[in-house]
Design brief:
about 750 residues; Beta-galactosidase, Chain A, domain 5; GH92 mannosidase fold; six-stranded antiparallel β-sheet; 31 strands
Length: about 750
């Protein structure tokens, strides 16, 4: 009876805390209260975003989440449909199709009066929960869990950039146990007990990218230190695996309080050493004050979330927007620790600042551009990190996690470098930037003509631009020599355009002209009989067109990457007016684009389709863009666990929503231009880092009034469906008048083909 009463009291306290949090913080200016971390965590009508309800600061090095399943490549730690919690995890897994590395898991358990067997496997230790008993925010997570003997534990969690603070509450009549899982069976990690200081330390050397990249990294470890506020009765290691223990358990006495026992702990993580993990704790959580840590994290998030304000949104729409902001500000993640960082490219420690988890094939399109607006202070360090990777490993990476992974195609770090320079960012070495992009563009990877560069092929040299040898010889990459050859040709052409922009800014005129001309190589794949781009084999003949996006022969026979000819024909982001000329003019371009959408070829769940809604801006029918982007938002996003159609890919899906809601999108991100769509709300403002504000106002906006009738920028008529980064950074107001019918606004604009 006492256990039931105590539990009821604790439940009541939890409900009161949750209720008061809503009442106190549920104000419009408090962006955290509008974030729904469940968006993207579940499957359903729209899709599955593969996100997790992370407690972490923007760009945090370690993310903290309830673990409802054991993560691995293609499985993340938390899924909304799950009904059990297996522990609380410090994870570095950024997306579904990337694995984890250097993780640590903390597991509370109940020790009843009759004792409780040690349960270490995820299935044995798991406890049931309901979402009604869960609070998930960027700054705080809590959940009530029920053990097999019906006893309950309440867990709370908040975090800093590299550390976490947890509280576990146990009912009267029970004692608490905490497991610290350093690694899993077959992983040669280790955990140790420091009885004098009531501290558990250890490391985990596991990293999934070891299967995908070219390097062994014998020095890589994810270190941790766990410190307890309360003294344990006993602690011991378990699961000896080789030379080390997989984990430690610590047992605590029953508390005399009628409300049961509370165990508080703080976890420091590091990739440098155990001492650095301890130092990170000293710097980030110096005192035993959970509420202070949580309030600071909430303030940090609100500072970023307050950069965007929305007028005229429903509650559901507001939650979609602020959750997209939260997702867009998670990556790339910090990978340095107070002036030093471990490099997964030469396996040593360096002085400096570093970042990792760049899903560049995805994020070069819009996510990186969003960071230039919302967190421009991060851009120099992020570019510097890529250049450091180049110096330490020989190349800028395409998907570091934390080392080379050879996932996806192209060398789109070239786009990130070009975008930073075109937008006027400094704080990184321009000569090194040129050296890095020039190597990408001119140096084939080792064994280029001896390999097909299969998707995710294990243990290959760094792929860079696979097939570059043929690209330089033939002007395209042949499908009979290299996998994904047609897509590579198109994406390498875009990257050449980006290299040309770097050359232009650095005064290298001949290099600029060379790469600008070579950026037209995608045109070699235009098949006039189809009106589409088409892969070619090495003798110049056309390859089979392919049987659709999911055709298993597309990569090797037809030459496509996660797509087909329909998905990639408009993939030359830098030269859409040139493509229009190839097709025979705007009318034929528009007819083909109509056919693309009518035929169901637009797959917004994957990034190569993300700019397609904006393509009518180039061909005299921007009103079709306006209708199409509104249609995509309605179909692909919602305030629901199944609220993102496809893997969020480190914020790219979310960044598309943010830009489109504001009314513009970076079709060619390195151009520093944004194509205009149809703003989602009556008003939306960006508070810029230079203390200016850029506002988009849309008079008469509604679900039916999606068409722009006229536009002004700072009171002057805007006739073309394009604005620039510099115009945004100057602040002011972009004002639209909206209506229910298409207008001729913006219809005279065509853009300019490359070189003209």
């Amino acid at each position: 009876m006492k256990n039931s009463i105590a539990c009821a009291l604790l439940c009541g306290v939890a409900a009161l805390v949750a209720s008061s949090a809503i009442n106190v913080f549920g104000q419009e200016h408090d962006g955290v209260s509008w974030v729904n971390p469940y968006i993207g965590t579940g499957e359903g009508k729209i899709g599955y975003g593969g996100t997790m309800p992370f407690v972490t600061p923007p760009f945090g090095m370690t993310n903290w989440t309830a673990q409802t399943r054991q993560n691995r490549l293609s499985v993340v730690s938390y899924k909304y449909e799950d009904t059990n919690v297996q522990g609380f995890m410090g994870t570095h897994q950024p997306a579904i199709w990337m694995g984890d590395y250097g993780y640590v898991t903390i597991i509370p358990q109940v020790i009843s009066q009759s004792g409780h067997a040690l349960e270490t496997t995820p299935e044995a230790r798991q406890m049931s929960f309901r979402h009604e008993d869960e609070v998930a925010r960027p700054d705080y997570y809590s959940v009530w869990m029920t053990a097999k003997d019906s006893s309950r534990i309440r867990a709370e969690m908040t975090a800093t950039e590299r550390c976490a603070y947890m509280r576990f509450h146990f009912a009267q009549g029970t004692a608490g146990r905490v497991l610290v899982e350093a690694s899993r069976p077959g992983v040669a990690g280790d955990a140790k007990v420091d009885a004098e200081h009531f501290e558990i330390t250890g490391y985990n050397p596991d990293r999934t990218d070891r299967n995908l990249g070219p390097f062994a990294l014998p020095n890589f470890k994810g270190y941790f230190v766990v410190q307890f506020r309360q003294r344990w009765e006993r602690a011991a290691t378990y699961g000896m695996d080789g030379a080390g223990a997989r984990g430690v358990y610590a047992d605590f006495a029953q508390a005399p309080s009628e409300y049961g026992a509370t165990i508080e702990l703080r976890v420091g993580t590091s990739f440098l050493s155990i001492e650095q993990a301890r130092e990170n704790l000293r710097k980030e959580i110096p005192a035993w004050d959970f509420d202070a840590v949580q309030k600071k994290l909430r303030s940090t998030w609100n500072d970023k979330l307050s950069r965007v304000s929305v007028d005229g949104a429903t509650d559901d729409e507001r939650r979609m927007i602020y959750t997209a902001l939260y997702h867009a500000l998670l990556y790339p993640r910090v990978f340095s620790e107070y002036g030093r960082y471990y490099s997964a490219f030469d396996d040593t420690i360096h002085n400096g600042e570093s970042y990792t988890a760049y899903s560049i094939w995805d994020t070069f399109r819009a996510e990186n551009s969003m960071i230039t607006l919302l967190a421009p202070e991060r851009i120099p360090g992020m570019i510097t990190a890529l250049l450091q990777n180049y110096k330490e490993g020989g190349w800028m990476p395409k998907w570091p996690n934390p080392s080379y992974t050879n996932i996806m195609i192209g060398t789109h770090a070239d786009s990130l470098v070009a975008e930073a320079l075109v937008k006027g960012f400094t704080g990184f070495d321009a000569q090194t930037a040129w050296d890095a992009v020039y190597k990408d563009a001119m140096t084939p990877p080792d064994g280029d003509t001896m390999r097909r560069w299969l998707d995710r092929e294990p243990h290959t040299p760094y792929e860079a631009r696979g097939g570059l040898t043929y690209y330089k010889q033939l002007g395209y990459i042949p499908t009979d020599k290299t996998d994904e050859a047609a897509s590579r040709t198109i994406e390498d052409s875009y990257d050449d355009w980006c290299v040309a922009q770097v050359a232009k800014i650095l005064g290298r005129q001949k290099d600029y002209e060379f790469f600008l001309h070579r950026s037209l190589n995608y045109q070699h794949l235009y098949n006039p009989a189809l009106g589409l781009l088409n892969g070619k084999i090495s003798n110049g003949a056309w390859a089979p067109i392919g049987g659709g996006r999911d055709d298993p022969h597309n990569r090797s026979v037809s030459g496509w990457t996660e797509g087909d000819a329909w998905v990639y024909t408009w993939g030359g982001l830098h030269d859409l007016p040139g493509l229009m000329d190839l097709m025979g003019g705007a009318d034929k371009y528009n007819a083909k684009l109509d056919q693309h959408f009518a035929g169901g070829h637009n797959k917004h769940s994957n990034e190569p389709s993300h700019h397609y809604g904006y393509l009518y801006d180039y061909s005299g029918k921007p009103w079709k863009t306006q209708a199409k982007v509104r249609e995509i938002i309605r179909a692909e996003y919602a305030n629901a666990p199944s609220g993102i159609d496809g893997d969020d890919d480190c914020g790219q899906m979310s960044s598309w929503l943010l830009f489109t809601a504001m009314g513009f999108y970076p079709v060619n991100p390195a151009s520093a231009e944004y194509m205009i769509g149809s703003p989602m709300f009556a008003g939306m403002s960006l508070k810029l880092a230079n203390d200016k504000t850029f506002t988009v106002a849309a008079k008469n906006n509604s679900a039916t009034n999606v068409y722009i009738q006229s536009a002004t920028l700072n009171g002057k008529s805007l006739d073309n469906p394009v604005i620039t980064y510099n115009q945004i950074m100057q602040g002011g107001t972009l004002e639209f008048v909206m209506g229910p019918e298409p207008s001729k606004w913006g219809s005279a604009w065509r853009g300019r083909p490359v070189g003209k």
